[in-house]
Amino acid sequence: MTPQKQPKPAGVPQWQHEMMSLVLRVGLFVLIVLVGANLFPILLIPLADYYAGATLTVFATGSVANAISYRVYERSTLMEAGLEWTIAGRRNLMLGLAMGVGIGALTVIVLVVCGLARIESTGPVSWSSLIFVTVLLLFGAVGEELMFRGYAFQLLAAKIGKFATLLPMAVLFGLVHMNNVGATPLSVINTILWGLLLGYAALKSHGLWLPVGMHYGWNWILPLLGADLSGFKMGVTGLRLNAPETSWAGGAYGPEASLVLTLLLPGLFYLLYRMPVPRQQALLLRGVED
Fold this sequence. Notes:
Blueprint: H1 14-44, H2 50-74, H3 87-113, E1 118-121, H4 127-149, H5 151-160, H6 162-175, H7 185-205, H8 209-224, E2 239-242, H9 259-274
Antiparallel strand pairs: 1-2
């Protein structure tokens, strides 16, 4: 299915019409995100704890904003954002999971081996918590990718170019994490770098399953190893990564605020650049060179 072209008003230059259309389409997406981000917490947080309610808010907001934008402007569905469950999509999800889990585990291993942090035992594995967190983190990863690498990101990449889109969206991704518990300037910088990496993954794969896998793999492995995740503490496996409040260790924010991650991320960029990736068929990315 191809995007529907809107008729150009008489007397309006083509470039101006296209710019107005772009502003309207991105504006509707942003408006829905803002409304959802304020409405869904009222509905969802009372039903669960704060973290679960906040995570489900992200998922609901991202899903609704994309579904409405694709239906209104593209006469299409949410799946056209690059979530089709095809062979390429499944392979990209597995590839992304391997990369996310790998970089997360490597970061913690370097912290421990270099004496920058230590892993302590705090008790037995909480299997119910582990299953709950495993499912919840998947909703969070899908929701954030829909919000930051979904309709608005893909539309801007198609209309103004991938390079003009990647950095601003990555900076926005970093800034929205500024108010997390324990956030530092370095945690924001690392989150911006993650935003660049995930945006590049979406453009390279022409879909969302690769960045979803990378995002989810990172978010999943850290709690399993006892590390804090973006300022949140989740005791699920009876392990605790004790990291002091230093730039090298990350402190209360977790490894995302660590210089170790800053040094490792360029290697992950290079690996993704060199790696053959199955191409999906996200509607708005079909004409964008990876």
